[in-house]
Amino acid sequence: KPLELRVAEPFDNDLGGNDCLDGNCDDEDFKDPVNWLVDENRKEHRTDMYEQKDLIVRREGVVKLKVAFTREFNSAGDTLRLEFKTGKAPAIQYGTMSTVDCKEDGKLDKTGWSGALEVNNETIDLEIYIPPNAAIGKYSVKLSLRTLLEDNSIHISSSSQPSIYILANPMSELDTCYFDKRTGLFNKSEEFLDEYVFNDVGAIWRGSVNNFGPKKWIYGQFQEPVLDLVCHLLANDHRTAKASGGIWLRDLIKLVRVLSSNANSCNFDGVLQGNWSGDYEGGKMPTAWNGSVNICKEYIKNGYSPVKYGQCWVFSGLLTTLLRAVGIPARSVTNFASAHDGDDTMTIDVFIDENGKDLKWSSDSVWNFHVWNECWLKRPDIPKSMGFDGWQAVDSTPQEESNGVSQCGPAPVKAVREGQAFVNYDTNFLFGEVNADRCTWMTNRYGEVVELTERKTGAVGHYISTKAEGKDNFARKDLTNDYKFKEGSDEEREAFERAVTFGGSYSRDMADHMMKNYSIIQRELLNKSRSTLKLEIITKEFAIGDDIEIKLVVTSEDGKLVEFVQEPELTLYSTYYSYGFKMRLFNFLGA
């Protein structure tokens, strides 16, 4: 006769409707049949800090559950199967649908999804193994019982089970986000996990090179509705919503890329809309936000319409929340005097005419500061010999497009430091932000570049900062040496030349103004040794209302005596932290 099931401490949740897959069906047997051992599993998988009471587990882990019956389970004629589905178009071949037949031998096959059962009188103890490359997201679950009857027909019953959430596992050596303490960066793995996965409060540095400080940010990755929002974003991205999209949910490198593009609203009605205009009507000023949870709540309340408004530190704080929520170690990172190299030349270019007038040909700029993120990932897509596992830079602030989408990274921080600008993803852009040279080019009356009048090699990439480890430690940790060699050193110049060679492109936005062989001329001028004057403006820190003392230092860098006659003109601008928004305050002309 068909196997009959009875309740075994059911999971306290709405199970939804029962339905039959095929064959003879007796869905009454499946009323609350499974005890998912939620508290035990959450504790084992270190997910018991999430506010929502659902079953939340990690891949490369084992889930335990119990099923009780009215008679002994007969392995010769009874088969217990669990079916897991995630995403918009679940497909077995792309890893978003998995079926697990539970075997009575008690052994788990860890080459993929597998199940094992042990019969204890009238109760079956089940174990389900989730592989380390399982798709991240919210899963629907169905339990089916197949019984071979005496007439060789099969009785099949099926019951919907509570949804479960599967996260990345930074505690497992087999997961891409695993932290290996052998790196020497931390004394213990727990120090790393406590800060970059489990800490729900942090600090983000803002300001300028001469005056900066931290802003407390509440990440709140364990609060509702953060995890549901992340799963919504992952399921509805245009890359993941099709049958073949499972790779974007299984591969954390690609998944991080999905989240970096969905944190902003430029392409897919993502979470946050940027605004640098100074007019914030219809939304909140970016400075009004102090955490990510209210942004997530407002996004859902608005029917998944973008929240207004954010700037770089808000985007970064939000992305840290989204990454930590799914188990990926992450932190916010601030770069002071941050370059925006809009044309991939690895230089921040200013073009002037023979009279010194700025021709405004370039979209390049230098921001007072810019905030992006780092996440900890292995890079199996890059040869291991290159040593690019570890911190990866990723940015959700909409700047330049990457593969047609407003996204940036993940780029290995070590590759940025070494100028390996060809390494995926967007390493060239990240290198420019921290190590671009600031160049002034003179053109002739025909619009041809004829002279490099000034080149500053240390103008950008200062005091790169993040929060130090420790839940109650809001001290600053300096990351500058992680991103660049000592300014002016041979290694730093070699990294720059390497980045120009492998990652730069030279005539994209300025073709209308440049001669045909502009890139060749520019490279020659960059490498040309010439007598130069260095002009440096030195100011002391000052408060609003104070007089400003300015000292102009003129240096002949090659030691030669130079005579020149010049009428100095000093222009003072007020500058927002980003996008080079300026307002001229006054000009001073002197003799």
What does this structure look like?
- By secondary structure, the protein is an alpha+beta fold.
- It folds into 3 domains: 5-167, Immunoglobulins (Immunoglobulin-like); 181-503, Transglutaminase-like (Coagulation Factor XIII, Chain A, domain 2, Alpha-Beta Complex); 533-589, no CATH class.
- The chain has helices at 38-44, 189-196, 226-236, 246-250, 252-262, 293-301, 312-325, 413-418, 427-435, 480-483, 490-503, 518-527; strands spanning 5-6, 34-35, 55-58, 61-69, 78-86, 97-103, 114-120, 123-130, 137-148, 154-167, 201-208, 211-218, 272-274, 307-310, 330-340, 347-352, 365-377, 390-395, 408-412, 437-443, 449-456, 462-467, 476-478, 533-539, 550-556, 569-575, 582-589.
- The strands form 7 sheets. Strands 1, 2, 3, 4, 5, 6, 7, 8, 9 and 10 form a 10-stranded mixed β-sheet that branches. A 6-stranded antiparallel β-sheet has the order 19-18-17-15-22-23, with helices on both faces. Strands 16-20-21 form a 3-stranded mixed β-sheet, covered by helices on one side.
- β22 and β23 form a beta hairpin.
- The model is unreliable at 1-31, 506-520 and 573-591 (pLDDT under 50).
